[in-house]
Amino acid sequence: MRVAVIGAGPSGLVTLKYLLAARDALGTKPIEAKLFESEPSIGGTFFSRTYEDAELVSSKQLTTFSDFRIPSEGDFLSAGRYLQYLKDYCTHFRLWPHINLLSTVKSLNKRRSGDYSLAYTLQNGLHTWECDAVAICSGLHVLPNIPHIDGIDRIPVRLHSSEFKKRTQFDVGKTVLILGSGETASDLGYLAVTSPTEKVVLCHRDGFHLAPKTNPEPRIIGMALRKTAGPPPIPIDVSRASLFDTAYVHPWLRKSIALWTYYDYYVGWILWMSWGTFHGLDQWIAGKPTGWSTSQIFFNKSSKISPYINNAWKPRQPQSFPQYLRSLFIRTPYIDTKGRCVDVAPWPERINEDGRVVFKDNGRPEYLRMKEKVVKPDMVIYCTGYRQEFPFLQSQHHNANVRDIWNRDDPNVGFIGFIRPSLGAIPPLAEMQAQLWVLNLVAPERVNRLDPDDEPHYRLITPKSARVRYGIDHESYIYQLALDMNSAPSLSQILSLACDGPRHQLWRLPLVWALGANFNTKFRLYGPWQWDGAPEILVDELWETITRRPIFFGHITLSLVPMLIFGPISLLVYLYATLLELLKWVMHMKPEDYVLQKEDIPR
Length: 603
Prior knowledge:
603 residues; alpha/beta; FAD/NAD(P)-binding domain; 6-stranded mixed β-sheet; 5-stranded parallel β-sheet; NADP; NADP binding; membrane
């Protein structure tokens, strides 16, 4: 079998790796795989669209692949360090001979025979390669999304975030208008306000939710000590326990909003306890609309901008009696920004002839504050995302309707990495997608029935007006793909494996399985992609990760309490469902089924 991979970002590289590993892991014939990348280097976004001081907002523990880890160097990697990690990954798994750089795919056509003809340019020449399947891991044309705003051309300098590289581009004494409120907008807003600019204005459409990169743990202490609460070291994206959250949850329960409701209360409670606000991490303005839940939010973990937004909005003294009581025990530290601030504003309606911005009336406090201010930007930066285009495909709409990976009518074309988690990372999701796609490609009999009814539970709820409509819950999606591949071990399998290893594995492995987040390595213990090195990583590196979790605002609130609530509920639902199936079976039995037949009597 010959398989083409388009794109050398994390998604393309991990797909290439599993294609090459299929012979040894699955016992299939060798796969001849080629990867085509238009840039002169691997890395995708981490090579071509990074900027000064860029750092991954997802933890190293989650973002690195299941069988190639970075055991030290802190929890969060810089973009440059992650690019080096991807190069080391290629070297470790011997991917380089299969990677073709500076190779732009021009067309992909399905032939009558059922295979594909891929045309690509290399050294100014046009070449073709015939293959049996294709993994699309890049849009090839990743075009900036530029929303229309009347009069925007009156602003002298207009950049998309993909064109921004260094602080010096802000120049000196300029007014910078940032369009967008995601992680890139927050990063560039922070760079702008800490540069010698005159004014920085950040515009949003529907609010945003600043989230900490590490799980907050307010320390409730005596009145006299007045110590401040500080976040614990464990990254927030690995702070959830999987037992009864995603693992061993009855389908009826996981399709309900019960877990989301619990996390709504938890998030609101931890925010108020830590900072006295429900908007986000020490965030006092531009929160998500009232009524929005965690099932609808893309968390923004680039929160260094928070104190600069606070300046105009955070009260210096408690504004209510509950806030006063809270302040007796918990006092959030005030960060001195030396008078620098970022103005939060609604989305621009237009730019007047004199260059002044007219903001839309969104009915929020920031509009009342900004409507009379004179904002004449010297520079506008679009932090408004990208549009994926597939010029080599006959249709621009890939319509991957099976787990967002392939179309039921054409399973040999896989789309890897085209999803967005609310709180997580795309590379580990792409690894699980690659595992499932390759397994279905070469050994479809080993894939469970891919029921469409199993999909809604991991999808985020998005309004019809939302630009991004492919949001998913990281933990739920990972576990669903593991179930599809029979890679999610049972409790008896975990206990059996724990007994087969060193003494510390006997108790560490079950605890990491139950209390740890859905690290991809957990799904290399069993199943088609089983790997002998998985137990060691779990009982060493990932054991150390979960043991750093704080006691109360970690093990208790994010592990013990959900287990005590949803464990018994899951058990009751399982018992009820079993009883219901038994009653259905009895009701549908024919009279003769009740009679013991002669041949059924043991001799």
